[in-house]
Design goal:
15 strands, Rossmann fold, about 625 residues, Gyrase A, domain 2, alpha/beta, 3 domains, globular, 4-stranded antiparallel beta sheet
Length: about 625
């Protein structure tokens, strides 16, 4: 069944174009000019203002002329013009009935993606300390973006990239090998990601005091990149232990992935060499014999065509891929990795199960020297979620892949950059250890304590149920507060906002869902699809119109890679339901009115549960 709002909008756009053409308003595109109205009519169109800018005529004249020419439109009973807007009045009974029927049918997935394969890479934390709240933001954005694309008809592969050969990993490894030189407590039972983090912080403090030790760290890094060395084995062993530990954090937030790609396996499988050979063959890289970059493999930015303005005028004249000592820079491995993601470099990885069964019931795979070839990678597109500071590196990856002659595949790469997260004015640094007290685990522990106080005792809820509810409320509070800000903006986390049961929060959305569930429970009947002749109240039909948009909101959030589109919609939906509930006696009136209102409550409940699910928030039946 097709969404009634889609049918309505398509029919409206067709008639608007037809009316504009008949009046000689050529190339008048009604896209993004049609919105639900709270003033004149049920739907309003602002296309006259767009046309006015082009032909220099008053919007009121244009809208009046167009309104007079608009013919029959599905679900529309009347068309008028007012102050430059074209207003559409709906057949409320028919539109409401079909909308509720569509929602009850399960509102089938969007076909926007049409089965295309998409990789979403997120979290990808350097294995040197536990998740702090910045990593949590990465994980939550990546998870919701993956959910959105799946809901829109894409086949999504959720990837976690483990940078177990970088300088940070080498510092943690050197510290582990020289633990007697560090001021780190021994013997305490701590999760491995925390104990590695303490070693990493202590190592950086020592390196600040004795910079001469940096040469030893670089030697460890070089040896770790050589297959078969003690350091290479230790690097993998430490990182796998770290991954097992950090998964506990991920699972506590309902974050699950399909596969882990190891930087060390990119090196072992010669992806780096294959990438460098392809770039050299195209003349994209150079190896200077003198000057600042002597002995390095570099890309001279001025030589690249169609260089984005963000990459022009930089202090760096070239980007180093391979240092003079033969070690690879981060960007080199990232270019190779993305070429593998898009199938430009053939899939030479083998995979085995890192976890037989995650809490969601699915296995977690990992690249491995022993295993089987599995169809990961070679996708139609890829999204990488990282902090905004990596914007230039991600742009360079696209430019290099385009320079290889793979422009279409380069355009299929997206970078979602996110801003800084602060708690109580704290700015986080992995090297300095300021994540202590600000980890994702710390945040969830405090959220649970606060939620226990916020969820009031209730005779219908046992102590055990109350504890489960408090945990779900805690997760909802954190997720919603992180996701309601557009990714590129900075966040200052607020407990007052996150646990606000009066609006604009995950717990408030859960509360309205629970209220709807309670209404249906009290009714004692299973709502059907009843002809809603009683839906003349403005608060009631406003809720219908808002629910009718839910599929469009999912597709909009997916197109724009913005989870906050969903949080904004949920906030508005929850408020709209509360206004309906407060102004309309759902369980009173004659049987026809009551049945119609109950069908609306059931539809609201379905939409709220679906949209919360996209955010990874669990709906609560009792609260």
């Amino acid at each position: 069944m097709e969404s009634p709002y889609e049918v309505l909008k398509r029919s409206m756009e067709a008639e608007l174009r037809k009316a504009a053409d008949g009046l000689g308003y050529l190339d008048a595109d009604p896209a993004n000019t049609i919105v639900p109205s709270k003033a004149q009519g049920d739907i309003s169109c602002s296309i006259a203002f767009r046309i006015s800018n082009a032909i220099k005529k008053p919007p009121s004249e244009i809208s009046s002329n167009m309104a007079a020419r608009i013919g029959s439109i599905e679900y529309v009973s009347k068309v008028s013009s007012d102050n430059g807007f074209i207003n559409f009045y709906l057949d409320r009974e028919r539109f409401s009935k079909d909308t509720i029927s569509y929602i009850k049918s399960g509102s089938p997935d969007s076909l926007q993606g049409n089965g295309k394969r998409l990789i979403v890479e997120y979290v990808s934390v350097n294995p040197v300390h536990p998740w702090h709240v910045g990593h949590l933001r990465n994980a939550l954005i990546g998870d919701v973006v993956a959910n959105l694309y799946e809901r829109c008809g894409y086949i999504v592969e959720r990837q976690n990239y483990m940078d177990n050969l970088g300088l940070q990993a080498a510092e943690a490894m050197w510290g582990t090998m020289n633990i007697d030189k560090l001021s780190v407590k021994q013997g305490a039972e701590r999760r491995l990601d925390y104990s590695i983090g303490e070693v990493y912080v202590a190592t950086n403090r020592l390196l600040e005091k004795d910079p001469g030790l940096i040469a030893e760290v670089k030697k460890v890094l070089s040896l770790a990149e050589q297959d078969g060395t003690y350091e290479s084995k230790l690097a993998r062993e430490m990182a796998e232990g770290y991954l097992s530990a950090e998964r506990q954090t991920a699972f506590s937030y309902g974050i699950y992935q399909d596969v882990v790609i190891w930087e060390s396996d990119i090196v072992k499988e010669k992806l780096l060499e294959k990438m460098l050979e392809m770039l050299a063959r195209k003349g994209i890289t150079k190896k200077p014999t003198e000057g600042k970059y002597k002995g390095c493999v570099v890309i001279e930015l001025a030589d690249l065509k169609d260089l984005p303005k963000e990459l022009t005028g930089l202090k760096e004249e070239a980007k180093v891929l391979i240092r003079s000592d033969g070690s690879a820079n981060y960007i080199a491995k990232d270019i190779a990795f993305h070429m593998w993601k898009l199938g430009i470099i053939e899939n030479s990885f083998k995979f085995s199960k890192f976890m037989e069964r995650q809490p969601n019931g699915e296995p977690l795979y990992t690249t491995s020297q022993e295993g089987a070839e599995i169809g990961f990678g070679s996708a139609d597109g890829a999204i990488t979620v990282t902090d905004s500071e990596q914007k230039f590196e991600q742009l360079l990856v696209k430019v290099v892949i385009s320079a290889l002659g793979e422009r279409q595949k380069a355009e299929a790469l997206k970078h979602i950059g996110y801003g800084i997260v602060t708690l109580e004015g704290a700015k986080l640094s992995g090297r300095k250890g300021t994540w202590v007290g600000y980890t994702a685990d710390d945040l969830l522990r405090e959220a649970k304590e606060r939620a226990r106080s916020a969820v009031k005792p209730n005779d219908s809820i046992s102590a055990e149920e109350r504890e489960v509810i408090a945990e779900k409320v805690a997760v909802a509070a954190i997720k919603f507060e992180f996701l309601k800000i557009s990714p590129e903006k900075n966040i200052t986390f607020s407990w007052e906002r996150a646990l606000n049961f009066n609006g604009g929060s995950g717990p408030y959305c859960q509360y309205t869902y629970a209220r709807a569930s309670r209404i249906l429970e009290k009714s004692g009947t299973e709502p059907g699809i009843t002809s809603p002749g009683a839906f003349e109240e403005q608060s009631t039909f406003s809720l219908v119109k808002l629910m009718a948009l839910h599929k469009e909101m999912i597709e909009k959030a997916c197109r724009e890679d913005r989870p906050n589109v969903i949080t904004d919609y949920l906030s508005e939906l929850a408020v709209s339901f509360s206004k309906f509930y407060e102004s309309v006696p759902v369980l009173k009136g004659d049987e026809r009115e009551k049945a119609a209102r109950l069908s609306l409550v059931a539809a609201f409940r379905n939409v709220m549960k679906e949209m919360l699910g996209i955010l990874g928030i669990e709906a609560i039946e009792k609260m």
